[in-house]
C-alpha cells in the first residue's frame, strides 16, 4: 500500500470528516465513473418523470451526513413569467407539515406542559369521546375521528378564514369511524386537533410556536406558515393540469388544513430540519425517538407509523418517510438513519407526484453505499 493511499484512507475514515457518496467510489478505485454513475442515474430518473421543461416541475435533493451531495431543479417556478425552478424555491409542504406538528407536541411534553397519554377532554372538554381519545391516538392516526377532507361539506368552508376552534367544531360531531386504538387510518382531523391543543397549551398561535421553537432554532429562514397574500421571496407557484393545459392552483384558506398541511419550505431548509432532529437541537434524544417508534393497536398488532412519520423500509433498511399533497403541490421526503441519507422531492404541480422517484433515488443511494 503506497503512502498516498494510506494518507487518503486515514482521511476518509476519520469520523470528523463528512463522507459523501463519492468517497465510497474513491475506495473502489473508480471515483469519476462512480460519481458520474450516481448523478447520471438520478438525472435520468428525474428527467424521465419531469420531461416537460416548459411546465411546472420539481426540485430534488440528496444529502449524506448532513451535507448536500446532489440537487436538481427541473421545470418552471412560474409559468406566466417563464421563470425556472431553482433549489432555493419555496414550496407548500402539504402533509409533511405533520412532522412539525408532532415535534411541537413533543416539545411541549419535554417542557412538562402536556403528556401524549393525556385525554383530549383535558383540553377540549366538550369533544365527543374526548374521554377515550388520547393525544397519542391523534399523533398515530388511530383516533377513529372522521377525516374532514372526506366530508362533502368541506367545499363550504374551503375559502373561509377559520379559527382552530371553528375547524374542530366543523368535524367534531361527525360519527366516529372506529373506537380509538382499533386501527390505523390516516387522518387530517387529528392533526388539526393537535394544532389547536398546541395553541391552548402554549398560549401562542400554531404559526408563532413553530416559528419560535423550530424554524428559528433550526435556522430555517425560508420556511413559513403558508399564505397566498404575503410576498414570499422565491415562491414556487402551484398548478393543476387540465385537458386544455396547466391552470393556477385552486385557492383555499390555509386556516382549513392548518396544522395538518399549511407549512412552506425549501429543500435546503428541510435538510436543516432533518439535521436539527439528528443533533437534538429541538428535543432530547429520548423524546425525539418517540416520533420514530412503531406502536401497537389495541389487539397488539404493530403498525408502521410513529408521530408524524411513516416508519418503513427500503431493501430491508429502516426509513422514516412522509409525503404531502395540497392544491398545486406534492412532496415527499425519505430519511435513512443507518446511512444518514436524506432524499427530498418537492413538486409545484399536483399532477406530478415525487413519491416514487424519491423512493427510487433513496434506493439508488443505498446501492451506492452498499460497500461502505
State the CATH class.
Answer: Alpha Beta
User: Strand order within the widest sheet?
Assistant: 2-1-15-14-13-12
Q: How do the helices and strands follow one another from N- to C-terminus?
A: HHHEEEEEHHHHHEEEEHHEEEEEEH
- How many beta strands in the DSSP annotation? 15
Number of domains: 1
Domain Beta-lactamase-related: 53-351
Signal peptide: 1-35
GO molecular function: hydrolase activity
Keywords: Hydrolase, Signal
Q: What does this protein structure show overall?
A:
With 372 residues, the chain is α+β, with helices and mostly antiparallel strands. The protein has one domain: Beta-lactamase, CATH 3.40.710.10. 33% of the residues lie in helices and 19% in strands. The protein is built from 11 helices and 15 strands. It has helices spanning 3-12, 21-27, 31-49, 97-110, 135-139, 164-171, 188-202, 206-218, 267-278, 285-289, 355-368; strands spanning 58-64, 67-74, 76-78, 83-84, 91-92, 224-225, 239-242, 245-248, 263-265, 295-296, 302-303, 310-314, 317-326, 329-336, 341-347. It has a 6-stranded antiparallel β-sheet with strand order 2-1-15-14-13-12, sandwiched between helices. Strands 5-9-6 form a 3-stranded antiparallel β-sheet. Strand 13 (317-326) and strand 14 form a beta hairpin. The longest helix is centred in the first third of the chain and has 19 residues, at 31-49. The chain starts with a helix and ends with a helix. Residues 1-34 have low confidence and may be disordered. It comes from Pedobacter ginsengiterrae. This is Serine hydrolase domain-containing protein. Residues 1-35 form the signal peptide. Pfam families: Beta-lactamase. Residues 53-351 form the Beta-lactamase-related domain.
Amino acid at each position: 500500500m503506497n503512502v498516498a493511499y494510506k494518507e487518503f484512507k486515514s482521511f476518509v475514515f476519520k469520523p470528523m470528516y463528512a463522507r459523501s457518496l463519492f468517497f465510497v467510489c474513491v475506495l473502489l478505485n473508480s471515483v469519476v465513473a462512480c460519481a458520474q454513475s450516481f448523478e447520471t442515474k438520478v438525472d435520468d430518473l428525474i428527467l424521465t418523470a419531469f420531461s416537460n421543461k416548459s411546465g411546472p416541475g420539481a426540485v430534488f435533493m440528496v444529502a449524506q451526513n448532513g451535507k448536500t451531495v446532489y440537487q436538481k431543479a427541473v421545470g418552471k417556478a412560474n409559468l406566466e413569467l417563464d421563470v425556472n425552478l431553482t433549489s432555493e424555491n419555496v414550496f407548500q409542504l402539504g402533509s409533511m407539515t405533520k412532522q412539525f406538528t408532532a415535534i411541537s407536541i413533543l416539545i411541549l411534553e419535554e417542557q412538562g406542559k402536556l403528556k401524549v397519554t393525556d385525554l383530549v377532554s383535558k383540553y377540549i372538554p366538550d369533544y365527543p369521546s374526548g374521554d377515550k381519545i388520547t393525544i397519542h391516538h391523534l399523533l398515530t392516526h388511530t383516533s377513529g375521528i372522521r377525516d374532514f377532507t372526506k366530508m362533502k361539506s368541506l367545499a363550504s368552508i374551503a375559502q373561509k378564514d377559520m379559527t382552530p376552534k371553528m375547524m374542530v367544531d366543523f368535524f367534531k360531531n361527525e360519527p366516529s369511524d372506529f373506537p380509538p386504538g382499533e386501527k390505523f387510518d390516516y387522518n387530517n382531523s387529528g392533526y388539526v386537533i393537535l394544532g389547536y391543543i398546541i395553541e391552548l397549551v402554549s398560549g401562542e398561535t400554531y404559526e408563532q410556536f413553530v416559528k419560535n421553537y423550530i424554524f428559528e432554532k433550526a435556522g430555517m429562514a425560508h420556511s413559513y406558515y403558508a399564505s397566498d397574500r404575503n410576498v414570499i421571496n422565491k415562491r414556487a407557484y402551484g398548478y393543476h393540469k387540465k385537458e386544455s393545459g396547466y391552470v393556477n392552483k385552486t385557492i383555499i384558506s390555509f386556516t382549513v388544513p392548518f396544522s395538518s398541511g399549511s407549512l412552506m419550505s425549501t429543500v435546503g431548509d428541510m435538510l436543516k430540519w432533518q439535521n436539527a432532529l439528528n443533533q437534538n437541537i429541538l428535543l432530547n434524544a429520548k423524546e425525539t425517538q418517540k416520533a420514530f417508534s412503531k406502536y401497537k393497536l389495541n389487539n397488539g398488532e404493530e403498525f408502521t407509523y410513529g408521530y408524524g412519520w411513516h416508519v418503513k423500509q427500503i431493501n430491508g433498511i429502516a426509513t422514516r418517510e412522509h409525503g404531502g399533497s395540497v392544491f398545486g403541490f406534492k412532496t415527499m421526503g425519505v430519511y435513512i438513519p443507518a446511512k444518514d441519507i436524506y432524499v427530498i422531492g418537492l413538486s409545484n404541480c399536483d399532477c406530478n407526484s415525487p413519491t416514487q422517484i424519491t423512493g427510487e433515488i433513496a434506493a439508488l443511494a443505498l446501492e451506492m453505499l452498499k460497500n461502505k
